[in-house]
């Protein structure tokens, strides 16, 4: 495949965390050329990509959810497919179907849009739960089973789904099993006045997505993911993650705390966050920074907790802040690897 302009090649030897951060910076700058004033949302999206997770972007219409997903996808030289979730969407429209071939007199499989490196699921909570559930197997096991035959998906594989708040007309809440498969959930929020003015200047006459060129390739992302897996997490920090997740299950205002999958996603996200900060070991600060985006959407609150009238996401963030404040932090000096280098 021909090299796209601006692609940063992976230099040998691989395993350089500084090089990983350089590539991530290129991706960030590329996305920021379209999405202005949302650095934390962009950083979280990159972390999810490198941590082998999936991203759920939830907010009101028109704040740039789909634009963020598209700009991230276009920054990579990878296969990208989009699924528009609607009430009449069928599971086969997502995974693919077996079609009878008159020439061969046999059934042949026609892959659906999930057979890509990045799958953009637009307005996922406007589809029937049966169509939503078509993503469960591919998000967790990176494979699709149709008519008893299992097909492996490409690497890397990232689902970026957008959804409107459940208060919006025509939406329905995602099932708990579906939400739990998303590594992180973020909200865009309204832009600042300066960012909105800049958007009018840059987006008013042309589509800024047309100017994005890939800054890295799918193969290089796979190498970066392999590097993130090697980031050191001490026993003390792993215990800290277990303590945080366990505290969500004992909190009096939380009916259902974070799952073991949530703990696994938290350690993966913390590894990626450390790598983006050019470290080969995880600090408690990395874990704390990822607690809300990774755990908040997994919590089920007691009905009494919602009587304040606050949005559910706001209440979950407040309760997680309380959990973090009450959980002892590992002692200094216990988190570094026994020897430097990956």
Spatial strand arrangement across the major sheet: 3-6-9-1-10
Q: Which CATH class of the largest domain is shown?
A: Alpha Beta
How much β-strand is present in the residues? 15-25%
Radius of gyration: 21 Å
How would a crystallographer describe the biggest sheet?
Answer: 5 strands, parallel
The domain count comes to 2
Tally of DSSP β-strands = 13
How many separate helices? 13
* Unreliable parts: 1-14
Describe this structure in words.
With 342 residues, the chain is an alpha/beta fold. The protein has two domains: 1-88 and 114-230, Rossmann fold; 231-332, Orthogonal Bundle (Helicase, Ruva Protein, domain 3). It is built from 13 helices and 13 strands. It has a five-stranded parallel β-sheet with strand order 3-6-9-1-10. Helix 10 (235-250) packs across helix 11.
Brief sketch in words of this structure:
This protein has 342 residues and is α/β, with parallel strands linked by helices. 41% of the residues lie in helices and 15% in strands.
Structure keywords:
342 residues; alpha/beta; Rossmann fold; Helicase, Ruva Protein, domain 3; five-stranded parallel beta sheet; two-stranded parallel sheet; 13 strands; disordered N terminus
Helix and strand arrangement:
Blueprint lengths: L16 H16 L6 H12 L4 E4 L6 H10 L1 E2 L2 E5 L6 H5 E6 L4 E6 L6 E5 L6 H4 L3 H6 L1 E4 L2 E4 L5 E6 L12 H5 L3 E3 L6 H11 L12 E2 H12 L5 H16 L3 E3 L3 H17 L7 H12 L4 E2 L10 H15 L16
Parallel strand pairs: 1-9, 1-10, 2-11, 3-6, 6-9
Antiparallel strand pairs: 4-5, 7-8, 12-13
Helix pairs in contact: 1-2, 2-11, 10-11, 11-12, 12-13
């Amino acid at each position: 495949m021909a090299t796209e302009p601006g692609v940063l090649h992976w230099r040998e030897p691989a395993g350089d965390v500084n090089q990983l951060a350089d590539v991530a910076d290129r991706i960030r700058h590329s996305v920021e050329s379209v999405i202005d004033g949302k650095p934390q949302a962009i950083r979280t999206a990159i972390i999810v990509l490198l941590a082998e997770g999936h991203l759920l972007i939830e907010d009101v219409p028109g704040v740039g959810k789909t634009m963020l997903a598209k700009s991230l996808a276009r920054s990579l030289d990878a296969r990208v497919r989009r699924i528009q979730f609607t009430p009449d969407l069928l599971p086969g429209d997502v995974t693919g179907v077996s079609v009878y071939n008159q020439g061969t007199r046999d059934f042949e499989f026609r892959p659906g849009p999930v057979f890509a490196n990045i799958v953009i699921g637009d307005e996922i909570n406007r589809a029937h739960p049966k169509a939503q559930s078509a993503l469960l197997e591919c998000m967790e096991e990176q494979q699709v089973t149709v008519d008893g035959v299992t097909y492996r998906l490409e690497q890397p594989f990232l689902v970026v789904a957008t959804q409107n708040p459940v208060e919006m007309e025509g939406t329905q809440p995602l099932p708990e099993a579906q939400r739990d498969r998303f590594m992180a959930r973020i909200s865009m929020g309204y832009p600042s006045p300066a960012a909105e003015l800049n958007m009018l200047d840059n987006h008013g006459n042309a589509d800024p997505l047309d100017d994005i060129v890939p800054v890295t390739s799918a193969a290089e992302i796979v190498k970066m993911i392999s590097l993130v897996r090697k980031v050191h997490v001490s026993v003390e920090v792993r215990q800290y993650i277990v303590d945080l997740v366990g505290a969500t299950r004992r909190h009096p205002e939380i009916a259902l705390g974070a799952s073991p999958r949530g703990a696994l996603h938290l350690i993966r996200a913390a590894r990626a966050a450390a790598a983006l900060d050019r470290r080969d070991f995880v600090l408690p600060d990395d874990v704390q920074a990822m607690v809300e985006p990774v755990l908040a959407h997994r919590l089920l609150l007691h009905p009494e907790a919602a009587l304040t009238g606050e949005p559910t996401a706001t209440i979950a963030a407040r309760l997680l802040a309380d959990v973090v404040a009450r959980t002892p932090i590992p002692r200094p000096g216990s988190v570094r690897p026994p020897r430097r280098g990956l």
